Amino acid sequence: MNYTMFKAEFDMSIEDYASFLKKQKVKLLGFGVFASVYQHPTIPDMVAKLYDDDEAYDRYVEWCLSNQQNPFVPKIYSVHDYPEFKIVFMEKLKECDQSKFELWMKSEFVLDDLTPGFISAKVLARTLQNRTFTDEKDARFLAVLEFVQKQILINDYELDLHSGNVMMRGKEFVITDPLSW
Question: Which of the four, 37, 63, 83, 100, has the lowest number of CB atoms within 10 Å?
C-alpha cells in the first residue's frame, strides 16, 4: 500500500500534521472529539484515521487487528505510531444514517428505555444477558459486544455507540469506534 502521502515527521504535533495534510490537499471526510478521517488520495477504498491520546480506541484497534475475520469490525491495513498521534489506515466505509441505525438497534439489541440514536451501557448489558445468539454471525457480533463490555467494566471506559460510530460495508453494519474515555 502507498502510505507516502501520509508520511509524517516523527516529532510533528497532531495539529501540524493536520495542516500538512491540508496543504497536500488530502480531503477531510469527517472528525470527532479525538480523531479526524481523511480520504487516501490515490486509493479510493482506503481512509486514514488520525487520532491522539485515545487509549480506548487503541485497545479497540488492537482487538480489531486480531479479529479481522469478524464482519462487524473495520478492515485495518496498517497502524503508524508517532509520539503525538497515530494513523490507522483502514477500509473506507459508508455512513450509516440515523434511520438505518435505529432499525439496526431494534433488530440487534434488547431495548426499552432507549435514548434515540444511542446505545447505553445498560442496553448493552441487557442485550448480553437476554438476547439469544444462535449462529456464527451472531457469535461474531457477540464477540464485539463482549469485548466492548469488558473494556467498560475493567477500564471504566464509556460506551460511545451511535450512528456516527457505526458505518456500512454494503448492507453490513460495522462498529468503528464504540468506546470513549
Answer: 83
**How crowded is residue 162: how many other Cβ atoms within 10 Å of its Cβ?**
18
Q: What is the mean pLDDT of residues 45-65?
A: 92
- Rounded to two decimals, the pTM is 0.88
What strands, in cross-sheet order, belong to the sheet with 94-95? 94-95, 166-169, 172-175
CA 181 to chain centre: 14
Q: Any idea which of 6-15, 27-36, 71-80 has the lowest mean pLDDT?
A: 6-15
